[in-house]
Amino acid sequence: xxxxxxxxxxxxxxxxxxxxxxxxxxxxxxxxxxxxxxxxxxxxxxxxxxxxxxxxxxxxxxxxxxxxxxxxxxxxxxxxxxxxxxxxxxxxxxxxxxxxxxxxxxxxxxxxxxxxxxxxxxxxxxxxxxxxxxxxxxxxxxxxxxxxxxxxxxxxxxxxxxxxxxxxxxxxxxxxxxxxxxxxxxxxxxxxxxxxxxxxxxxxxxxxxxxxxxxxxxxxxxxxxxxxxxxxxxxxxxxxxxxxxxxxxxxxxxxxxxxxxxxxxxxxxxxxxxxxxxxxxxxxxxxxxxxxxxxxxxxxxxxxxxxxxxxxxxxxxxxxxxxxxxxxxxxxxxxxxxxxxxxxxxxxxxxxxxxxxxxxxxxxxxxxxxxxxxx
Length: 375
What we know:
Layout: E1 12-13, E2 18-19, H1 27-32, E3 45-48, E4 69-70, E5 78-79, H2 80-86, H3 88-92, H4 94-100, E6 107-112, E7 120-121, H5 125-131, E8 140-147, E9 155-160, H6 166-175, H7 178-183, E10 185-189, E11 195-198, E12 204-206, E13 210-216, E14 223-224, E15 228-229, E16 232-233, H8 236-239, H9 245-249, H10 259-266, E17 271-276, E18 279-285, E19 294-307, E20 313-326, E21 329-334, E22 338-341, E23 347-362
């Protein structure tokens, strides 16, 4: 592992990291990565820079699935998680380590749904700490990259649009009355460029044909309100995180959201952070919305300066090609590439003649609170 010390001071190119899920998709990811024809499989998600074990149910569980890999140049690929644990300060940054230890405090996914996802929800930090032995819940956000041409009405489902008592909702779940579950949620049309903030506890689902970057807290906890997927049916125990059903359902947010509430609180408007000539950095979702993560879009035509500011970030190249110049040399950037940029990289510069678009993900905000226990 000591041979990695020089490598972790430069951007690390990550290997493809598809994860099995209970629905089909992934063709749009393959197209972006240049992986050939448009084919949907049971691996519709790419986990970018992940140090999280996928919690797939039953016989679909595979130890190590979800953990990002990279090649150090010689020998077999190694997990990014092992490098974080070996060189935490260089990789994550001293302030990050003081608060979160060697936990990356972020999970990034590319998600391409060929079909509508099941209606589900996620636990909050408080619930996870009290009942799951985790300091992280699963607040998340969706950054829509595009929709499939054959999808006429791309949408997501989120939050209650009418009064739904806990007893009524439980009856829907017990009967698996999916039409009723869908009917009480907002159906929100989406298109490329939209950003949807999904607070923990909100019932939700992603419609078929939506391709996105998903940022979330670093867990794989899902409460399966709808149990029957195209390729798997969840047991009651699996659906409710192995806990009592009433206890798990207590985390569901039953607040009624108006259309105006959705637009004001859950649909996030981008904000220009800075521009340099024809290049720009746009904040798509910032720490003023949630302390859990932040997402930005970098557009480079010519050059754009950067600085890790003592913490790591993850980059996904969405369009074009160019380079990242840093103290350790030059890293070529092409569409579909995924990189972990260690905190120790420091100042750098992006360059592109023809144009380059990247998604930049940042981990949980440093709050200065006591170090997270059990991270």
